[in-house]
UniProtKB/TrEMBL annotation:
Its main location: membrane. It is found in: Endomembrane system. This is Beta-glucosidase. It comes from the Eukaryota. It is a multi-pass membrane protein. GO terms for cellular component: endomembrane system; vacuolar membrane. It comes from Cladocopium goreaui. GO terms for molecular function: L-cystine transmembrane transporter activity.
Length: 200
């Protein structure tokens, strides 16, 4: 029976081969077609590689990162890093679109502020559970010696998401000015005010 690493390498090889075949077919259609539909700009070609690239990177990093012995742990590592790359890639189209259009019309400032707050809290949560031995020991004591399950990819994802959200907020500031910030400030703070007021 092949080892888990050998099996996962075969999966990556198959995925890579299929991606290369699809790219070759697309290139052939672009050359054969006389319509303008298949003549893609460099940016459009890169846009098509984000999702397959995230999948391939996730599988590769998951295979080669250290993991506890066993096929289940290796699969968990591969899935964890694949989710990290897939979700991380999902933040970039909005940032790139804002940059290309030089506009943030239609982008919710409130949503971005709440996202920054949420990802900041999520980063602190994961970072403390991953690096703070006192918190990990207290968690194990409360939960029958079970580990919290926070992994490096969780910490990196949350930190990366927080940074990208801050970049998006900076784009909103630079491209639309400070006009909407006052309304967003009051709407976001009202959530905390009414929540706190409801618990008193």
């Amino acid at each position: 029976m092949p080892s888990s690493v050998h099996w996962l390498r075969r999966v990556v090889t198959t995925l890579w081969w299929r991606a290369a075949r699809c790219q070759k077919q697309l290139r052939k259609r672009m050359l054969d077609s006389e319509s303008d539909d298949f003549h893609l700009s460099r940016g459009e070609r890169w846009d098509r590689l984000w999702v397959p690239g995230a999948l391939i990177l996730g599988v590769l990093v998951g295979i080669f990162m250290p993991a506890e012995p066993g096929l289940g742990n290796r699969i968990s590592e591969v899935l964890g890093w694949t989710y990290f790359f897939a979700w991380s890639v999902s933040f970039y189209p909005q940032v790139v679109l804002n940059f290309r259009r030089k506009s943030v019309n239609g982008l919710s400032l409130d949503f971005q502020i709440l996202n920054a707050f949420g990802f900041g809290c999520y980063f602190l949560f994961n970072a403390l559970f991953f690096w703070n031995s006192g918190i990990r020991a207290a968690y194990r004591e409360e939960h029958d010696n079970q580990d919290s399950g926070a992994r490096l990819n969780d910490v990196i994802f949350a930190g990366h998401a927080f940074c990208i959200t801050l970049i998006t907020l900076a784009q909103i500031c630079s491209l639309s000015g400070w006009a909407g910030w006052l309304i967003a400030f009051f709407s976001v703070n009202s959530v905390f005010f009414f929540h706190h007021g409801g618990n008193s």
